[in-house]
Design goal:
The protein is 38% helix and 17% strand. The protein is built from 12 helices and 12 strands. The strands form 2 sheets. It has a 10-stranded mixed sheet with strand order 1-2-3-4-7-8-9-10-11-12, covered by helices on one side. Strands 5-6 form a two-stranded antiparallel ribbon. The longest helix has 15 residues. The termini are far apart. Bound molecules: iron/sulfur cluster.
Length: 359
């Protein structure tokens, strides 16, 4: 017998809930009640919603599922970073990381199982892409954070496993849902998509006027270096990416783009790199997050010395650019940037080991 997988109620946005109410000939006010209870407070007991029509309740129970996936492990580091390993219904695991900050907590959301982009410094990359996460699965990541913390995190960044713009449809719907004021009501300023530089999708974000902020993982200031560490640069070279970023800023009323820059020893950490990066950041009014590389077993790159990191950031600051060295949190539980490693990623380590063993 073929078992039918019901869609998750958590994948329906407000308009779709209204359409269900209309189809069942009940008031759309009940769609708002679902938004106010399920999405606003992550509460799933629909039976307890006052004056909720039996017809709607029965339809939802028969045609949708409302549950959260299992958290198979939750690790906490000394700095209170929590890494949650979440097992989806098809037994695929993704990681979601809760990162404390001064007076604010940020959730790092995964958007795919694995990743197809292949950045050379990233542990997630080498296992390749298994599949996209659905909108409902990403909403579930956020609701698990609510269950863990007792409230939603203040900020979220789509910077976990996967390239969010490579899963555009699901991610765009997710962004609209988490920022819906009737539901989770995240401020668009506090929801950030971080991309490796999928240029057409940046233009699409503009066309769609997606209510979120943008960060670009730049990591190099020449095509030669960027193509070496980020193969996506062969398809969308630096000049096209920078043009798309300028267009984004111009169209979005001078809204700034955060530049992320993973510092790799001897690869992109020279004074000349710092000078070029300062010019790029100044031309866009961007803040720069400097992320000294976190080596992992089998990684091809090394972390620069503290002196080199200081030289690099001082040069940016002296040039008038706000540059912040991000000390990756949760390093001892492998929750830091580029270190997310589910069992899928463990295969990547073996691949790395095999690759580096080839003479
Ligand atoms: S850094 Fe991001 S885009 Fe690049 S391979 Fe890793 S997960 Fe994918």
């Amino acid at each position: 017998m073929v078992s039918v997988v019901k869609p998750s109620l958590l994948g329906f946005d407000h308009q779709e809930l209204i359409a269900i109410c209309e189809r069942l000939d009940v008031s759309s006010v009940h769609a708002q009640k679902i938004m106010g209870k399920v999405f606003r407070y992550a509460e799933f007991d629909l039976e307890n919603i006052p004056h909720f029509p039996k017809k709607l309740l029965t339809w939802l129970q028969e045609n949708t599922e409302l549950s959260l996936p299992e958290v198979v492990s939750a690790q906490k580091s000394e700095d209170n970073t929590q890494k949650l390993l979440i097992r989806m219904a098809d037994n695929r695991d993704v990681e979601s990381v809760l990162i404390p900050g001064t007076g604010r907590l940020t959730q790092c959301i995964s958007s795919q199982v694995g990743c197809a982009i292949g950045c050379e410094f990233c542990l997630t990359a080498t296992a390749g892409l298994t599949r996209n996460l659905t909108t409902a699965e990403m909403i579930k990541e956020v609701m698990i954070a609510h269950r863990t913390l007792g409230e939603y995190p203040r900020n979220m960044v789509l910077m976990g496993m996967g390239e969010p713009l490579h899963n555009y449809e699901h991610v765009a719907k997710f962004i609209r849902m988490v920022t819906d004021e009737q539901g989770m009501a995240f401020s668009p300023r506090r929801v950030t998509i971080s991309t490796a530089g999928l240029v057409p999708a940046i233009y699409r974000m503009l066309e769609d006027d997606l209510p979120c902020s943008l960060a670009v993982s730049l990591n190099a200031t020449t095509n030669e270096v960027r193509s070496k560490i980020m193969p996506i640069n062969n398809k969308y070279p630096l000049e096209d990416l920078l043009e798309a970023m300028q267009q984004y800023i111009a169209t979005r009323n001078k809204k700034r783009i955060l530049i992320e820059y993973v510092l790799l020893a001897g690869i992109n950490d020279s004074l000349d790199d710092a000078k070029r990066l300062a010019e790029i950041a100044k031309s866009m009014g961007s803040t720069v997050n400097l992320l000294p590389f976190n080596p992992f077993l089998g990684s091809l790159y090394q972390r620069p010395s503290d002196e080199t990191v200081a030289m690099f950031s001082h040069h940016l600051n002296d040039a008038g650019v706000v540059a912040v060295v991000r000390i990756s949190k949760g390093r001892e539980i492998s929750a830091a940037c580029g270190q997310l490693k589910t069992e899928v990623n463990q295969r990547a380590v073996h691949l790395r080991e095999k690759r580096s063993a080839v003479p």
